[in-house]
Amino acid sequence: MAYLHTLSLVLIVALGLPEAVVSCPHPCACYLPTEVHCTFRSLIQVPARIPKHVERINLGFNTINSITESSLAGLRKLELLMIHGNDIHNIPNAVFKDLISLQVLKMSYNKVKVITGQTFQGLSSLMRLHVDNNKIEFIHPDAFSGMTSLRLVHLEGNLLQQLHPNTFATFSFLQYFKMSTVRHLYLSDNAIRTLPSEMFRTLPLLENVYLHGNPWTCDCRLNWLLNWNKNTGGVLKCKKDKAYEGGQMCPMCSKPKQLTKKEIMQLDDVSCTRPTIQSPLKHSTSSPGEDNESELMSMEEYQEPFGNVTLNMTDEHGNKIDLNCRINSPSDSTKIKWDHINPQQIAINMTLSLDVECSIDRERYEKLWKLIAYYSEVPVHLEKEIMLSKEPHLSFRYKQDIEKDAYYFTGAVIAINRKIQRFEVLKNGTFVIQNAQLQDRGQYLCTVQNQYGVDKMIVTLIVLAQQPRMLVSRYQDVTVYLGDTANMECRAQGLPTPQISWILPDRTIMRAATQTGSRIMLFENGTLSVTSTNFPDRGIYKCIASNAAGADSLSVRLHVAALPPMIQQQRSENFTLTEGQTVYIHCTAKAAPVPNVRWILFDGTQVRPSQFVNGNLFVFPNGTLYIRNLSPKDSGNYECMASNAVGASRRTVSVTVKKKTTTAKITATSPQRTDVTYGGALRLDCSASGDPGPRIIWRVPSKKLVDTQYSFDPRIKVYINGTLVVQMVTEKDEGDYLCVARNKMGDDYVLLKVNVMMKPAKIEYKQQTNKKVTYGGDLKVDCIASGLPDPDITWGLPDGTMINSVMQSDDSGIRTKRYVVFNNGTLYFNEVGMREEGNYTCYAENRMGKDEMKVHVKVVADSPTIKNKTYSVINVPYGEPISLKCNAKGEPAPRIIWLSPTNRIIPTSSDKYQVHSDGMLLIQKAQRFDNGNYTCLAKNSAGEDKKVIRVDVQVAPPSINGHRNAMNTVKQTAIKEQRKLLDCKAEGMPLPRVMWLLPENVVLPAPYYGSRITVHRNGTLDIKSIRKTDAVQLVCIARNEGGEARLIIDLDVTENLEKPVLKNPLNETLALTVGTSVRMNCSAEGRPTPEIVWILPNGSKLTSGSQLYRVYHGQDGTLHISSPSVTEAGTYRCLAKNEVGQTERTVSLEIGKKTEINNPYTGLVSIINGENLLLHCSAGGNPPPKLFWTLPNGMILSRPQTVGRYAVLQNGSLTVQQASVYDRGTYSCKSVNEYGTSLMSVPVIVIAYPPRITNGPAPVTYARPGPAIQLNCMAIGIPKADITWELPDKTRLTVTSHARLFGNKYLHPQGSLIIQKPSQMDTGFYKCTAKNLIGSDSKATYVHVF
């Protein structure tokens, strides 16, 4: 019952454990439910599945190289995050957005380079930020916006060079007033040379700032810092450092040279030199000390206004003006106070003082002075002319002050290296105006400014202009024929170059040069061209040349005249031509408008230009008639007609074609004598010429005629070109072939002879007359015969049956389909028996002769033979399986039968026995009754063989703890209140059952589990909290089928005994160097003092103070070997024992061996980018060698060691996490011990290829409003490509592992962009880019929503 109670308690405790312990992320430690500690765990990423209720996380001193959006998601209760001492290069935007309770963030000693405006988004409760000792080069001005709880910022030890004035602002008011809650700021040990004067204005609560360790440039730009330091009284701190004068390190000057290493706080004032314009256009320069004020606007006046206001002003005289004004930046008298209510709420109290500035053009300029002229005697920019009256109000008349009006400016500003339409400022400050216009006249202001001052220069521009003047006659008359082109010239000169425009008779105005293809075109030189003129084009055309200085014009009257057609060739003409010739008949007409030309043939057919008829007649666009390959049928009269709206004209041509004839003549044939193989194809060529075309007739040896129209034999065919072809030639096709060519004019013939070649049948490669075949095997006999024609193959069987490739043997079902004669004459049959023995004859026969081949087949049978038939005895442990082998050979294959010791046939398959196909007998779980002789019988038709094997099943009686006696007695001593283990290791066959016999006949079987006494499965008796009453006699009993053994233990309980404890390692290996003395220590503690005995490799024992040859055992337990040789190598055992027990130490003395690498690489190792690389380097040697890996970048690592992504394991293997293309190269493993060195080099390539978009969007995508649009972008590449979409508004969306929604745009993890409910606002270019380390690919589509 005590055991049951204990078990219940354990279960209750397990069920009561908090969930945090169960869900602690591997391999971290969670000492409290709300804490996660993962320091020094060699992590390369943030552990997954961090509990959401965790408040403190420590990930310091690992090799984490990145943080993903999901790494810290959902940790809304987290208050402390420490991730210092890692390898983080980049912090994704909004990665901390869920950490609304975070108060301390420590990211020191990483490799972060940039802090963006969204890096710390969501950290409204953060009070302490540690990002020191990184590689930060840039901080966005809005980086700390919204972090209203921030009090301390550590940025020392980075690469910052400059800072924006609003960098540390944590909140803003009216988008203008930037304020910060930071009180402690550390900027030391960066690369900052100067700070903007407005920076500390946003830090009214600042208590400490550290600026030492920066290369400060001490010029006038730092005057504000000196004044600020004097007024703030101790906010600027120094670092305590005894190495510097005064015991502290303060900000020091780096430039200029005369101030190097001087403390900034000890300076009184620093000066600068303002810039001066060096230009011949500048009329005068002012000295640096002058106050060169003027009405010209300063650069500060071009800044964006604080706001805008409209002023409406009127007076009692009816004068009225509306002014649009801007509100300038607030003055320094502005006062701001705020209360920090909570991280999301701030109460602000502010007092503003503002100036208003209004812009005026010339019209408003005049209205304004009319309005104020009554109230001021000295109006600005107006010159007083006369006094109008004194009563009731003093009034004057004013005129514009032309001299002062010259200072009127438009206010447009162009910065250096910028271009606006025709205006451009070059990099060297030169102002360029392209294509100067009259309106460009006036004064231009050049202003240069730096932190030390301003200089200005005014340039007056005068633009020269000349009124246009026509260079041709102002009145012209132009006459053209109907349909021709009229060109009207208009040339003018002027400054600037005049613009030419034409007014047409229909009052249409043409101002710009037109594109080609129009009937009326205006060229760049001013010429107006009218093509294909018609009567409506008649009239007056007016040309106007104009520029900014004036205009000039000219008039052209256009006359359009008509002309009837006139054919240029003879009206009548005769042509006599020969058949087959080609003729060109010309017909060219002149007329206005252009006439239509057509030809009328002798049969009434009309043919127009570019028309092709009758296969040989064509009319060219110029009217020429072309006739090719003339024949008599082309004879006749051809008439050409040219007509237009005014009239018509004709031309007649008579064509006569003479016919040409020739006698048939054979021009080419095959050779006079042709040899052809029997059964082949005969081809005889015969071609002829003549007019009319001749007909080819062939006479064959049988005196019959064939031609292209007729053939008496389907094997014979005459083609249209005269060729004769005879298929499957026989001896009858031998003889004379006559080719006759015939037409109306005569005949021609050629005689050709054909010889048919034949050969008698002959059997090739005759085989031996005798052939042996194994009983039951396959018989294959080749019979290859040749001859012309091809001989027929026939086989004669021993029983007289004749078979061939067409007829297979069939003896009434006895041999059906066992015999096969292949087309090549080979005879094949399977499962040969004794009755297949005999003579086989192969016959080969054709028309020319006959041949034969005889083969005598002998069927061979073999009686069974068993290998290793000698009588054998097999000893097998009790309960183990038995395998009895019986391999037999014979023809036919013998059958295996096993007989048991009782001479019964053993079944082939049962739970106890299994007979395998190779004859092996398997007996499961050997028992005593399986003893005896087993007989293996092998039988076939030729005889039988047998083999006898004896099986002895071994049974061993039990033995306890190695004692061979059936009963043994030992004494054991135990210490009170301690635990005691009593061994009872039982051995025997079969394995004995163990039980313990306690006083009062209490029996405890193994295993047994009690509250204080336990019997383990191995028989050990475990007694907890030994008592005095446990000093009794205990008996361990071991039983099996071989007998019983007993171990009697007399247990004595004492209080102050201690078992021996060795001070040296239990196992040690030492290297043996021949001739060098060796010392092996062995010291032990115990109560009573233990006795130390050394056991040598040969079994000899040495007690303390004894010596054997060169081996001496000292009093302190040390074993000395003087001048050892190879024979002293081996295992030495040291035993320390007393009454309580004994302990043992083993020292292996091995001969020194040179190190050697066991697994050399023989080829190139390739790996895909992003996978983990594992290179093995197993080295042996004595003493064990030291192992070093040399990386391609020169880094050397030993085992075990981890540096970033590289790690050398204890077994010598090198691992590279997430290998990239930069890890390719040769890796060298070097093994070193005192006997030598071994080296192995492994070339490694990292497989990678640039991305390629395999499924991208179409160039143009059309869609209707409403239904979703899916733009696919799937890419392949190694490493995996990052996919980015660029929207029409230049917004970039990056694909992540999770789907994301941006407004109505859904970004799928596989790269597809889905536009939900599209509208016309979604129209535009969408560009998909896939990029990895190797390269990039992109595809774009234009989405048109209509």
Please provide a written account of the structure:
With 1346 residues, the chain is mainly beta. The protein is 3% helix and 45% strand. It is built from five helices and 123 strands. Strands 1-2-3-4-6-8-11-12-14 form a nine-stranded parallel sheet, with no helix packed on it. Strands 31-39-38-34-35 form a five-stranded mixed sheet, with no helix packed on it. It has a five-stranded mixed sheet with strand order 41-50-49-44-45, with no helix packed on it. Strand 109 and strand 110 form a beta hairpin. Mean pLDDT is 83; it is low at 1-22, 284-303, 374-380, 400-411 and 809-816.
Q: What tags apply to this protein structure?
A:
Ig-like_fold; Immunoglobulin-like; 1346 residues; mainly beta; 5 helices; 12 domains; glycoprotein; 3% helix; 9-stranded parallel sheet; Matrix-remodeling-associated protein 5; 45% strand
Distance between the termini: 85 Å
CATH architecture of the largest domain: Sandwich
**Dominant shape:** flat
- Major sheet strand order: 1-2-3-4-6-8-11-12-14
Query: How much is the average pLDDT?
Result: 83
SS summary, helix count? 5
CATH topology of the largest domain: Immunoglobulin-like
Kindly name the structural category: mainly beta
Q: Which sheet architecture does the biggest sheet show?
A: 9 strands, parallel
Give the CATH superfamily of the largest domain.
Answer: Immunoglobulins
Percent of residues in beta strands: over 45%
Number of strand segments: 123
Q: What would you report as the Rg, rounded to the nearest angstrom? A: 58 Å
